[in-house]
Structures are given as structure tokens and as C-alpha cells.
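Q: What would this chain look like folded?
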Amino acid sequence: MKRLDGKVAVITGGASGIGLGTVLRLVEDGASVVVADVNYEAAQQVVEDITKDGGQAIAVKVDVSVEAEVKDMIEAAVKTYGRLDILHNNAAWGPINDKEIPDMDVEMWDRVMGINLRGPMLGCKYAIPEMIKIGGGTIINTASANGKVGDYERTAYSASKAGLMSLTRSVATQHGKDNIRCNSILPGLILTPATKRKFSKELMELMEEGNLLPSIGGPEDIAALVSFLVSDEGKYITGQEINCDGGVLVRAGAGAIMKYVRDRQN
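A: My prediction, written as C-alpha cells:
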């Protein structure tokens, strides 16, 4: 018997990167999954690959900043599988024009908050009542190491992730007695296909210098942590901010390292 047999999970941003890694790991561990993504075609392809190998999955198109679409996403999970046990609020946006505050594009700021903070709130709003119906559940929010430290740029992104950690604590506090656990995972740099396209070889070498471990992590490393936290093995963990970052925040001057890296990139 697999650790997540009989469980139903919704993963936003599930068609790529960390979300895709989580989808594949939870399916491997026995869960039925809803691959929720703004890119519906990519989500459908993921589902085709899963079902071809005998897994259980459906695709749902969702812009997590739109309440009606989030509501439909949760309803699709319950209508298809009869329950909801796991929500992974993973979808996020980190635009390249997210700079210092005097140069802030306010529309961009609002859009980042809509996706990165409003989206998870809406997911919780509609998932929690369904979890209460079955006696509990687990919510994972993908936050970021950026939410814990000051940065020379990525101002909106960092603020949204700090807010997401606060949201995590509120959900854990308000619904612990409903047997609903909520935790934040804080990735550092993760080697997704998008990261590999964006970063030069020199830049990757500089990023590796900032890590305490020999190499940069991949989506499978975040997915392994998600799988543990949503399983019975993680049943006494809630309201926590768990770094999964190769130790980058342990090292003094991490912000200065990142500025040096970006200056070198430019």
C-alpha cells in the first residue's frame, strides 16, 4: 500500500516546474490528482502521460487570481473523486520588471499579489470546507526564501511570499482543531526547465557557490518534502516555514551574494 492511496490532491501550477514535480510524486505515491494550470494544453498533456501509465488525474484550467475559476477547480476535484484531501498552492508569478520601490509598476504589483497571495487565499477558502466534510486535510503553500530576507529587487514577489507565510500561520491556527494542517515550503533556486533556459553556465556556477551543498536542487526535492508533509508521517507538523534551499539562507550575507550574482549577470 502506498503512502497516499485513496487521497485526492489539487496542485496549482501543476503543468511545469515544481508543480509538475509534485504532481508526478503524489501520483507515484498513490494519490489521484487535479493538474490545475493556466496553460490548459500543458496540463492535459501531463494528464495524458499519467493516465497512460495507469495513474488517476484530470486537468483543470485556472487563473488562481479569479475567484470563480478557483471555486470551479475545487468543485471539479470533488465532483470527479468525491473528496479533497490535499491542496498545494504552488502557482506563482515572478516578473522580470519587479524592481526597487521607487520604480514600482503598481499594476504589476497588484497582479503579483493577485496570483501569489490572493490565489492561495482563494484556494484555502474553497478547499477548507471540503476538507472539513471528510474530517481533515493538508494544505501546502509554496512560499520562497525571498519572503524571509530583504532583496535588492523582486520587491513585489518577496512581499507576496512573506504574506503567504502569514496566511499559512492563520490557516493552521484557525483550522487545526478541524484536523487541517497548513505549512509553507520555502524553495531556494530550483533547477526547472525555465531556470535552465534563463541562467547561463557562468551564472549557475555562481549560484552553486552560494549553496552550502554541492549542487542546486530540482523539482523532485520539493516534491519529496510535499509528499512527506501531506502524508501521515507529517501529521504533527503544522504552521511551519520549512526551508528547502540547499542551505542558502544559513550563509551570512546571502543577499549580498545574490546582488553580486545579478551584477555579474548584467
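Strands lie at 8-12, 32-37, 57-61, 86-89, 137-142, 180-187, 241-244.
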